[in-house]
Amino acid sequence: MGKRITLDSGTARVVGKTPNGEGTVTKRNTKAGVRWQMAIYDGDGKRRYSYFKSEREARAALKTAQQAKDAGQPVKPERHTMAELFDAWLTSLWAQVDRGERSYGTWRQYDSHVRRHLKPAFGGIDCRRLTVQQVEDFLTGVPLSPKTRASLRIALRRALNVARRWGWVDRNIVSDTEPITVPQQHPPALSIAAAKRLADALRGDPLWSVYVTALFTGLRAGELAGLAIEHLNLDAGTARICQQVQRIPGSGLVITEPKSRASATTIELLPDVVAVLRGVIGERRSGLVWVTKSGKPYDPVYFTHRFQAALRAAGLPVIHLHHLRHYFVSFLPQLDVHPAVAQKLARHASVSTTMSIYTSVEDGLKRQAMSKLDAALRGLTPTVDVSVDVPPAGLRALSQAQA
CATH for 82-176, among 1.10.150.130, 3.40.50.720, 3.20.20.140, 3.40.50.10490? Predict the structure, then answer.
């Protein structure tokens, strides 16, 4: 039987016993200060040492070493820095982008977080020695918005999840950190009447058909650019969403799979949208619905730039094309569509995303409900156009401009 010894102020003291070969954790005075030493014999009978700043870290390392020894693996794993982990993780993500399994935008965001914030803060630290306190000190101290700090925490957690799968770390310490509360920011909403006025105001723009389709289908810019004639059944009023256009550095505009599995589905088209698409397609039987004069796909970013130029020309507040997708979802609670059905129509991966948009029109729906109740009590027929509260650049400004 071996002894587990703690050195306290230079004095050795027996604190317990462990079976031979199980390893020990002892407190040592070193040149670098007080450290906790983990020691264990490997499978070849050679004694291995590691030093840690806390007893907890040393005991966790000893437990891992014991498990590795029982499994016939090296008891002292190869050292990997956080910088090496970030590089390897981003490389694996890029391979997924190449295979069309992940969007380039996702990789670009993670790459930015790593390059600008995570690698400078943690790059030189051994993956196994990164602590909860180090992560929390960084996340609370970095002068960024709560949303950005929450995104940094997500990126770090996902990188360490990969490290855990690869055996570089034993657990993901980010999961033990305090989550960052992000103030709820409801997407802008639009009444159906105001949406019609918006569509009418932009009617003279060459890409008016793109805006109308986006407004009444909720398609993203990349999905609009990738919409193919072969995937439309205008007689049945449906469209199969199975691809999108993305710009990838070094490759240019490429056709990839949709953003998520939930995004790839067949959607219903309103008769007005069917009529708009028939006018765009004409006699063509194949190819993309919208192409440039040279027959090439549109860059999704161009759709947004052109949309914003059309808004300026009409004297309307400038918003992003993606807001039309939020407007589409905001129509659904006004029509008493159940959130579960709305999630399918919006092709959201999570119902929580749908509910955040439903919440943004909650006040308008409350007013509508009370108006209906009042009309019922008075024996009247309610005629209510839901008014939705949104930021100044949203519906309020649009309604004023269209009044």
Answer: 1.10.150.130
